[in-house]
From TrEMBL:
Gene3D superfamilies: Winged helix-like DNA-binding domain superfamily/Winged helix DNA-binding domain. Residues 99-131 are annotated as: Disordered. The chain crosses the membrane at residues 6-30, 42-61. This is Putative host cell surface-exposed lipoprotein Ltp-like HTH region domain-containing protein. Residues 101-129 have a biased composition (Basic and acidic residues). Keywords: Membrane, Transmembrane, Transmembrane helix. The keyword Transcription regulation does not apply. It comes from Caryophanon tenue. It comes from the Bacteria. InterPro entries: Ltp-like_HTH, WH-like_DNA-bd_sf. Residues 136-177, 182-226, 229-269 form the Putative host cell surface-exposed lipoprotein Ltp-like HTH region domain.
């Protein structure tokens, strides 16, 4: 519409200008009468249409621009949406790829966890078998338990006892270590057992426990926890010596001192024994 109106405006303008410049030209001659067109007629036939078309064109131009803008704006909006959609496609594809990769990693982690669980279970079974030991070791374990049920032993003393029973040193050590033994408690029991059937000085009893295989600290702790009258122990030992042998007073005192009693306790014990 605007283009057509513009063309008409140009045509009217050219005719109007030519008519004003040369109204007597052949182009403006009346065909019927052979007369020339006057300038007034030129203005009426071409000038007025030119002015009207020009005014109409000026009036339509803003509307045309607005219409054009209205058309262009949706087009631009559509192009932007298309670009956003095109840009969104790679993002969605990348997200899908990353999701698939994460799923593969999760699956691999699950498989590795299952394999590790199987390995752990196998290791547990092997550890149980190893803890149970061979048939010979199991027999040694039962023998060690039997000894511990009725007597007190140091670790080394119990190993030696099992070896005496015919077990190898390795199997004997395995059997002893298979039991959760409180060796200090074993030392305490042995110390009490010795005091119950024999007389000892403190240092003499410590030496005896060390001889049985306990360490110095265990032996000392065992003796210190006893509730014993050591002077009475000296008297008991003096009486025991006199039952099986003959002594002079000084000889008996020397023997008691050798057994680690003090000279005062030895002299008191000799007197109490009748010397």
């Amino acid at each position: 519409m605007v283009a057509l109106l513009s063309l008409l405006t140009v045509v009217f303008f050219i005719l109007f200008v030519v008519g004003l410049v040369s109204p007597s030209s052949v182009f403006f001659r009346a065909s019927a009468r052979g007369e020339h067109t006057t300038k007034k007629e030129v203005f009426r036939f071409f000038g007025i249409p030119f002015l009207l078309s020009a005014i109409l064109l000026v009036w339509l131009m803003p509307t045309s621009e607005t219409t054009t803008d209205a058309v262009v704006e949706p087009v631009l909006s559509t192009e932007t949406e298309v670009q956003e959609e095109v840009a969104a496609v790679p993002e969605e594809a990348q997200a899908q790829i990353e999701a698939e990769e994460q799923a593969k990693k999760d699956e691999q982690a699950r498989i590795e966890a299952e394999e590790q669980a199987k390995k752990d279970e196998q290791a547990r079974i092997e550890a149980e078998k190893q803890a149970a030991g061979t048939m010979e070791q199991q027999q040694a374990v039962r023998t060690a338990e039997s000894y511990l049920n009725y007597s007190a032993f140091s670790r080394s003393g119990l190993i030696e006892q099992l070896m005496y029973e015919g077990f190898s040193e390795t199997d004997s050590a395995f059997a002893v270590d298979a039991h959760n033994v409180d060796w200090q408690q074993q030392a305490n029991k042995m110390a009490q057992s010795y005091i119950d059937y024999s007389a000892f000085s403190p240092s003499g009893l410590i030496d005896q426990l060390v001889y049985e295989g306990f360490n110095e600290q265990q032996a000392t702790n065992a003796v210190n926890q006893l509730s014993v009258d050591w002077v009475q122990q000296a008297v008991l030992m003096a009486e025991s010596y006199l039952e099986y042998s003959s002594f002079s007073r000084s000889g008996l005192i020397d023997q008691l001192i050798y057994e680690c009693f003090s000279e005062a306790d030895a002299s008191y014990a000799a007197t109490q024994a009748g010397l």
